[in-house]
Design brief:
The protein is mainly alpha-helical. The protein is 49% helix and 0% strand.
Length: 68
């Protein structure tokens, strides 16, 4: 997404949700959506086969601590 598209999306989403967006928070929200758009582009770039299926259940695991 371009910066203009991100701004348009954030404005439209805030309006649709009747969510006031403080001018002080706007730059951070725009940065977050730009980051999320970059992540989405990475995911969309991964080719999937016709037999690929979504995970039925995701179980996060706690990372192991490094030994000191």
């Amino acid at each position: 997404m371009t910066p203009a598209q991100i701004e348009s999306y954030v404005d439209a989403a805030a309006a649709a949700l009747a969510l006031p967006l403080s001018p002080a928070h706007r730059p951070g929200v725009l940065r977050y959506f730009a980051l999320a758009a970059d992540f989405a582009a990475l995911i969309e770039a991964v080719p999937l086969s016709m037999s690929a299926e979504s995970a039925v259940h995701f179980s996060p695991v706690e990372p192991q601590e490094k030994e000191a």
